[in-house]
Amino acid sequence: GPLSPDERKFPPQLRVPRATFTTLRIKGALRGCVGTTEAVRSLVASVADSAYAAAFRDSRFPRLAGTEMQGLDIHISVLSPLEPLDCASEEELVAALRPGIDGLTIREAGRGASYLPAVWESLPEARRFVRELKLKAGMGEDHWSDSLRVWRFSAEEFG
User: Fold this and answer.
1) What phi, psi does 89 have (nearest 5°)?
2) With contact defined as beta carbons under 8 Å apart, do 20 and 50 qualify?
3) Which helix (H) or strand (E) holds 131?
């Protein structure tokens, strides 16, 4: 990425592959949130990538301006490995979720979306959480099929 930290200058625990998201807020309002659920880069490189992308590549927002830096709240989520959930129905998925703990990733036929555990703060009801995530992925809110894949994860939060 555009920020390429020299990993050799960081302690070993920061060189372990981890998936991260960076969330940016100004006065409580979302200003960018980008990351990955796959642990393909070191923790230090993953944070650099997600932070840069949240500031300059979140398609929902204009690029972050220098004048916005003063009020910027930066929040880093370090994700656990994805755990597949084998659910035969939306009801099973809703019952399996741990509100406030689980992040969720769904994928099907090239479409997909993820919610970090922090999203429970604005969507505290499990069925709504699942249905809004399906809408985010471009699926119908009541969509379900045998080819829908679901994973959960937890996150360590820093901010």
Assistant:
1) -160, 165
2) yes
3) helix 126-136
Of 35, 64, 60, 67, the closest CA to residue 158 belongs to 35
Which tokens sit at 70?
A: 């003063």
- Is the pLDDT at 141 greater than 80? The verdict is yes
DSSP string covering 6-63, please?
Answer: -GGGS-GGGSSB-EEEEEEEETTEEEEEEE-SS--SBHHHHHHHHHHHHHHT-TTSPP
Q: How far apart are CA 94 and CA 20, in angstroms?
A: 25
User: Could you report the per-residue pLDDT of 117-129, keeping only the tens digit for each?
Assistant: 999 999 999 999 9
Predicted TM-score (pTM) of this structure = 0.88
Per the structure block, which two tokens stand in for 88? Answer: 């035969």
pLDDT tens digit sequence for 46-76: 999 999 999 999 999 999 999 999 999 999 9
From CA 107, how far away is CA 114, in angstroms rounded?
A: 9
Residue with tokens 């009020």: 71
